[in-house]
Amino acid sequence: MMIEESRKKETVSCVFEGGVLLETIYDPKEHKTSYITCVNGEYKEHKKIHDSQTNITHEPISSENSLIETRFVKLPSVCLKEKVDVSQLFKEIRQLIETYVKIPEDFLDICTTYVMLTWVHDKFQTIPYLRVIGDYGTGKTTLLRVVGEVCYKAMISSGSVTTAAVFRVIDQFRGTFVFDEADFRHSEMYSDIVKILNSGYSANSPVLRMRVKKDGEMATQSFHVFGPKILGSRMKFGDDALESRNITYRLMPMTKEEINKPAHLDTDFFSRADTLRNKLLSFRFETYPKISADESTLQDIQFPRLRQSALALTSLAKYIGEDVYNSVMKFLVNYEAELKSNQSDNIEADVMVVIIDLMFGSDDSKRTIHLTEISNYFTDHKLAEYSDRAEREYTDKYGNITKSSNYVISPKKIGGIVNRMGIKKSRDGHGFYIDLVLEEKRIIALIGRYALLKYYKEKEMLAKDTKDQMKKNNEILF
User: Fold this and answer.
1) In whole angstroms, how far apart are CA 375 and each of 380, 416, 477?
2) Which is nearest to 316 in space by CA: 142, 156, 134, 114?
3) Amino acid 448: pLDDT
4) Which of 16, 81, 114, 199 is deepest in the core (most CB within 10 A)?
């Protein structure tokens, strides 16, 4: 009987069946890589390790690999093999960030919690991205570098990287990708980066790419892109779905106090960062078996996408301590209010305002609203707010370029907006209409989504008071 030879595999880290963790450390003094495992609290170092379940012999990535040699990937240098005080570790990470970056207390707690989350992110099915927006001179790059240095297997890059490289390093190392200048609107990289970001927040959502084999044939290749990501950009993404995956803070121009922060990251910073990475490796070994998603930590968050994205962050914040959890929730509640405000400041929200106004019109028995009614009302009452659309150039059928100052929101345009919001339409001899009885639940849900519930209640009460007054007037007259 032939014994099957084990397959060798270069592995950076993995979780074996049964929950045993395997992690790579890199000793820059000895210029060598090795493995660390922890079983029942006992740490062991290995040059390689064999998994009998899969018959795979795992070997650490070579120290000669340029990504390791140049410290592009930040690995721990040693495992401390001692119990970690989670609360104290949080304070040490927070102090490091605070030394070099000036940000509000609640966002400082968000950043610190996110650093710790990166070390156990693979215990969760979804994870948010940490993103800062700011112009030149706001300290954006420094914040990304400071926070990134202590994240799990951090890969700190910039706009000079190619998309092919991004796919490969995320797939190979499965750590935290830190990307500065994440503005790709006017580059051919944009669609590829958006694919990574739209898939990378959720586990088991690989990105498929085509590659050319040696024989010239095309083959499909799957890339694992799930994992924490820290982004810096000068503006928001155009993709609303992608925006919802980020926990974002906008940096403002630095004050005199902030300019007095260290102008560069000195040797003391890198020494402290290295020590913290080593402590965080112990934190990963200790915390991984204990941490899990705790939906009760989302009690104050209503937005479905924010709930999905923030669950890992709130679960870990609760694990760290009540004070940290309260601070994180304070930021997220305010952030949700900002998201609601942003949602209520768009054309869909204005169409909902028009629908509410027409719902409580003078007709007592109104059951339907035709798109023509919405179009006319919108043009009369809302178009002025879209002054940049009120006059535009267009090419007529003869090829002449002229300007129109009579731009209206047509019923067809209203129909497209209504479709995007998920409101179903019916049709009669007068055109398309919304059946208010059939679509009531959907409309009420959208009113809440666009933060218009107070406006709706006010209109409802005003309509009731008007009807009551009319009834009284009729009783007096007759």
Assistant:
1) 9, 12, 38
2) 114
3) 80
4) 114
Amino acid 87 reads: S
Q: What pLDDT was estimated at residue 3?
A: 47
C-alpha triplet 207, 213, 217: angle, nearest 5° = 100
Distance, CA of 445 to CA of 195 (rounded, Å):
30
CB 91 within 8 A of CB 321: no
**pTM exceeds 0.85, yes or no:** no
Q: Please give the span between the terminal C-alpha atoms of the chain, in angstroms, as a whole number.
A: 107
Please report, as a single letter, which amino acid is at residue 420.
R
Q: What residue type is assigned to position 365 of the chain?
A: S
Written as six digits, the tokens of 337 are 């209010």
Residue located via tokens 């339907």: 368
Contact 293, 311 (CB under 8 A): yes
Where helices occur in 150-298 by DSSP H, the ranges are: 163-173, 190-199, 240-243, 256-259, 267-287
Locate all alpha helices (DSSP H) within 85-189, ordered by sequence: 86-100, 105-118, 140-149, 163-173
- Return the pLDDT at 390: 43
Q: What is the pLDDT of residues 239-272, one digit of tens each?
A: 667 787 899 999 887 666 556 677 688 899 999 9
pLDDT score for 249? 93
Contact 379, 347 (CB under 8 A): no
Q: Tell me how far the alpha carbon of residue 132 is from its chain's centroid.
A: 11
- Spell out a b/e string for 7-27, using b for 16 or more CB atoms within 10 Å of the CB, else e: eeeebbbbebeeebbbbbbbe
Distance of alpha carbon 10 from alpha carbon 61, whole angstroms: 6
Residues of the chain where predicted confidence (pLDDT) is lower than 70: 1-5, 158-160, 182-188, 238-240, 254-260, 263, 341-345, 362-365, 383-407, 466-478
CB 381 within 8 A of CB 446: no
3-state DSSP call for residue 14?
strand
Tell me the two tokens of residue 73.
């990937």
Helix (H, G, I), strand (E, B) or coil at 294: coil
Decide: residue 374, CB within 10 A, 0-12 exposed, 13-18 middle, 19+ buried. buried
Q: Where are the domains of the chain?
A: 1-70, 78-342, 347-477
Residue 310's alpha-carbon distances to 41, 287, 332, 333, 350, in angstroms, are: 30, 19, 8, 11, 28
